[in-house]
Write a structure and sequence with these properties.
This protein is an alpha/beta fold and 335 residues long. It has nine helices and 14 strands.
């Protein structure tokens, strides 16, 4: 039989219930065998819903559970660092939701703990595991777009519930942490480089104090640019356009690609504005969360290096930090 890792899930976050737990339960290399909440009844309810054998009434009990091989940490952003480090101290590898920390200095604390423990830790950018992004990366690398010089990204949704963690500034809420980080991460992935400087405009909710509308511009080597807008209080929208000297590439559902339906990429050589040079590339249905879980489980089981490790997570946080600083200073800031 194929060996499987036993996952423990910290908390009962919406992303865990909606996507991660179902993905792990259907994965090749893992099963969720325990879940923890500070409310034991809530943990028991979630365990019963997903057929999870064990429920814990505290996070510490889960971290100390000897029958758990790896931890998934989807807790509110301010708990990513202490609970991830705590898991490592208990000998548990960790798949931690993004952003992995509230700034790059905190991310480096996790990196230091990871180095000391010698265990896998990854930031859960599931999009890196979807074939549409792997295909996009290959098209860029093969020169199908010519020289790629610009990427434009939009990622927004509307959420005004004050109880939602995304609307609580003191625990790491706001649009840049929640969705803007995807724009930064995927641009770094496609450009294969780190930004040199960043500038941002940020509009904050007068009640929540979170950034509800952020637009940013990042300059990469050789004059390449990312321009993005993210929001927690605009109509639901996602789109990425990659602009090259020979063609442009559109990714219509770049981040929340459906697990049960095909996606597509649109490559257009720009011969006219009516789509005369348009080519659609079909991508079969894929659960990117399941792919992420299996990739992490394989690293735990075999010792194979993670495709995207903590160096990447720290670099992404440095860019996000620069955007936050720029929103205050009104100047270009270096990561």
């Amino acid at each position: 039989m194929t060996p499987r890792i036993r996952w423990g899930v910290l908390g009962c976050a919406g992303i865990a219930a909606k996507a991660i737990i179902p993905a792990i339960q259907s994965s090749r290399l893992g099963r969720v065998t325990a879940i923890a909440s500070r409310d034991l009844d809530r943990a028991k309810t979630m365990a019963a819903r997903f057929g999870i054998p064990k429920a814990h009434g505290s996070y510490e009990d889960l971290l100390a559970d000897p029958e758990i091989d790896a931890i998934y940490n989807p807790l509110p952003n301010h708990l990513h660092v202490p609970l991830t480090i705590g898991a490592l101290e208990h000998g548990k590898p960790v798949l931690c939701e993004k952003p992995i920390a509230l700034d790059a200095a905190q991310a480096m604390e996790i990196a230091a703990a990871q180095k000391a423990a010698g265990l896998p830790v990854a930031e859960a950018f599931m999009v890196r595991h979807h074939p549409q992004w792997k295909t996009a990366h290959a098209l860029v690398a093969e020169g199908r777009l010519g020289e790629v010089r610009a990427i434009q990204t939009i990622f927004s949704y509307y959420l005004d519930d004050p109880r939602n963690v995304r609307n609580q500034a003191d625990i790491g809420g706001g649009g840049l942490f929640d969705v803007g980080c995807y724009a930064v991460n995927t641009a770094r992935f496609l450009f294969g480089a780190e930004p040199l400087r960043a500038i941002a405009l940020m509009e904050r909710d007068p009640t929540f104090g979170t950034d509800r509308l952020t637009s940013g511009l990042l300059e990469f080597p050789e004059g390449r640019q990312l321009a993005f807008t993210c929001s927690t209080q605009l109509a639901l929208t996602q789109k990425v356009t990659v602009l090259g000297t020979r063609a442009r590439l559109e990714i219509p559902i770049p981040f929340n690609a459906p697990a049960d339906a095909p996606t597509r990429l649109v490559l257009d050589d720009g011969r006219d504005l009516a789509g005369g040079g348009r080519e659609e590339i079909a991508i079969a249905p894929v659960d990117q969360y399941r792919e992420q879980a299996d990739a992490f489980a394989e690293a735990v089981l075999t010792g194979k290096p993670l495709e995207t490790g903590l160096d990447d997570a720290v670099a992404n946080m440095k860019a996000v930090d620069a955007l936050f600083r720029s929103a205050v200073s009104g100047r270009w800031e270096e990561p």
